[in-house]
């Protein structure tokens, strides 16, 4: 049976963050808040957990487009090829924030992502998500949790999320109401920035 724990985004409780990290290290799946919608995540280095998320999403792991949740820009260089000054300026301006950036992956990608030419990088403006990643010591792989409800694409109430997902994941974090708008996705892997999906992040900064 999974757990529902309350963590306050303004000042995340270290003990609770440790609890989340322990579950992630053991290959558990966690639903957590971001600066957009709630996400379903696992440790990027845990193949079994990655397979579980791919199965939940109904996709093959090697074809899945998951985002990497990073603590800050210094994390990004672990998995992304050397970026030019113009790209770095865009990232610095937008992050932390409600954006997913598609960037060219490098040779250090975890084994399950070795075949990927590009990766989606997120640094959400949410202390809970970032503290988890910081404590874990590497990114978490993440995907938004959709709702089958035709009117509401994303569930925003953590208690309703828990009700629906308690038999699928190991832990749901209640970090307050989520947003019902996903991140803006920008492809920076080509010569010009390309807007793939317009979401919560304003495109005016590009």
TrEMBL record:
<dbReference type="InterPro" id="IPR017945">
    <property type="entry name" value="DHBP_synth_RibB-like_a/b_dom"/>
</dbReference>
<dbReference type="InterPro" id="IPR006070">
    <property type="entry name" value="Sua5-like_dom"/>
</dbReference>
<dbReference type="Pfam" id="PF01300">
    <property type="entry name" value="Sua5_yciO_yrdC"/>
</dbReference>
<dbReference type="InterPro" id="IPR052532">
    <property type="entry name" value="SUA5_domain"/>
</dbReference>
<protein>
    <submittedName>
        <fullName>tRNA threonylcarbamoyl adenosine modification protein, Sua5/YciO/YrdC/YwlC family</fullName>
    </submittedName>
</protein>
<dbReference type="GO" id="GO:0003725">
    <property type="term" value="F:double-stranded RNA binding"/>
</dbReference>
<feature type="domain" description="YrdC-like">
    <location>
        <begin position="14"/>
        <end position="201"/>
    </location>
</feature>
């Amino acid at each position: 049976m999974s757990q529902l724990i309350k963590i306050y985004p303004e000042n995340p409780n270290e003990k609770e963050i440790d609890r989340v990290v322990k579950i992630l290290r053991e290959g558990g799946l966690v639903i957590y808040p971001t600066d957009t919608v709630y996400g379903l995540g696992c440790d990027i280095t845990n193949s079994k957990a990655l397979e579980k998320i791919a199965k939940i999403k109904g996709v093959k792991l090697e074809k899945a487009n998951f985002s990497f949740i990073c603590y800050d820009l210094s994390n990004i260089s672990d998995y992304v090829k050397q970026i030019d000054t113009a790209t770095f300026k865009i990232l610095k301006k937008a992050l932390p924030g409600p954006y997913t950036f598609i960037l060219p992956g490098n040779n250090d990608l975890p084994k399950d992502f070795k075949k990927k030419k590009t990766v989606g990088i997120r640094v959400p403006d949410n202390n809970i998500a970032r503290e988890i990643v910081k404590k874990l010591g590497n990114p978490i792989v993440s995907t938004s949790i959709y709702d089958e409800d035709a009117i509401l694409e994303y569930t925003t109430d953590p208690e309703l999320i828990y009700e629906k997902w308690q038999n699928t994941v190991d832990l749901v974090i209640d970090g307050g109401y989520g947003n019902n708008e996903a991140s803006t996705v920008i492809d920076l892997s080509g010569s010009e920035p390309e807007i793939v999906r317009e979401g919560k992040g304003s495109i005016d900064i590009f």
